[in-house]
Amino acid sequence: MQIQLTSSPRDKYHPPPPRPWLPLTASESESFLERLTGILTRTRDEPPFTKRLPITNLRAMPLSFYPGWLLVEGEAQVDRKRIGTFDVLYGRGFMWVIDGTMTDRDADQGRMSTRVAPVEPGTRPELAEIESSILAERGRISLLYQVLLNSAPIAEGWEKMLTAVRNRSSLPASLRELVMLRVAVLNRAPYEFDAHVPHAEHAGVPAEKIAAVKNGQLGGAFAPRERLVLELADAMTREISVPDALFERLRGEFDERGLVDLVATVAAYNMVSRFLVALNIGH
After folding, report:
1. 152: burial class by Cβ within 10 Å (0-12, 13-18, 19+)?
2. What is the rounded distance in angstroms from the CA atom of residue 277 to the CA atom of residue 182?
3. Is the overall model pTM greater than 0.70, yes or no?
4. CB 233 within 8 Å of CB 183
5. Cα torsion angle, 96, 101, 102, 104, sign
6. What pLDDT, on the 0 to 100 scale, is given for residue 9?
7. How far apart are CA 241 and CA 235, in angstroms?
8. Are 82 and 101 in contact (CB under 8 A)?
9. 213-269: per-residue pLDDT in tens?
10. How far is the C-alpha of 130 from the C-alpha of 151, rounded, in Å?
């Protein structure tokens, strides 16, 4: 399925992102939803939200860091008071629903599902530079970053650190993503886990290993090097301290930079998951 994108003027301020959202035409939207509905129908026992709810405002953004892939975003009217926003990673015949938020549109309450209200991108000119930086690295401003934008210095520092951990690391992408998934499981952060499944699959992690990461004890699904980094994730997340014997085994696999990158990845995604859980982001 080919999606031809067309542009249209915006009616409010938005920072000038390197890759702007582009609306789908009516025929593109119909074709996209038909395909998404088919995939969701095959993987769920109940009718998917695309069949049960009105879907509007479909828009797409090409992802430079995943050539040939698009991030497609849309809105689902849950009921008179609530609207949900969803994101789908789409490309090369695959689709993943990777993100979703729920907004209470009650005029008297105006509450959000998160414990701190997200900042809608494009509504605060003073955040334009930070928003553009997030868009340049990630292709979108997710719910996590919308909450972080309440504190501009934290959002800016968070984006730079997590970009270094994810996109500037010496670790193979498959090992990095396995670690992130394991930390999400241990900290009971399903939003983080679901967000990283597409990245793990793109990095070549097979479905059986993604499933095995959810097990309480590490089984035999992993190669020795994979199991070693997951043991580190378990030790740092569950026990905090890392046994000397385990670290000596890690020294046999990684140089000094690799050790720093690996420990920083586990530590950083513990920060991410605990922030998500504490503020009820995506939960």
Report:
1. middle
2. 15
3. no
4. yes
5. negative
6. 37
7. 7
8. no
9. 998 888 889 999 999 999 999 999 999 999 999 999 999 999 999 999 999 999 999
10. 11
- Backbone φ, ψ for residue 58 (5° rounding): -70, 135
Residue 173 reports pLDDT greater than 70: yes
Are 103 and 84 spatial neighbours (Cβ–Cβ below 8 Å)?
yes
pLDDT value of residue 66: 67
CATH of domain 169-278: 1.20.1290.10
Helix 224-234 with 173-186: angle, nearest 10 deg: 40
Using CA atoms, how far apart are residues 245 and 67, in angstroms rounded to an integer?
42
Residue bearing tokens 């095995």: 212
Return the closest-CA partner of residue 233 out of 278, 174, 176: 176
| Amino acid at site 271 | M
Task: Return the pLDDT at 68.
Answer: 77
pLDDT digits (tens, 9 = 90+) for 73-128: 887 776 655 667 778 888 766 777 766 655 544 433 333 478 899 998 888 999 99
Q: Which sequence spans correspond to the domains of the chain?
A: 22-165, 169-278
The answer, yes or no, to whether residue 13 has pLDDT greater than 90, is no
CA distance 242 to 246: 7
The strands making up 82-91's β-sheet, listed across from edge to edge, are 22-23, 55-62, 70-77, 82-91, 94-104
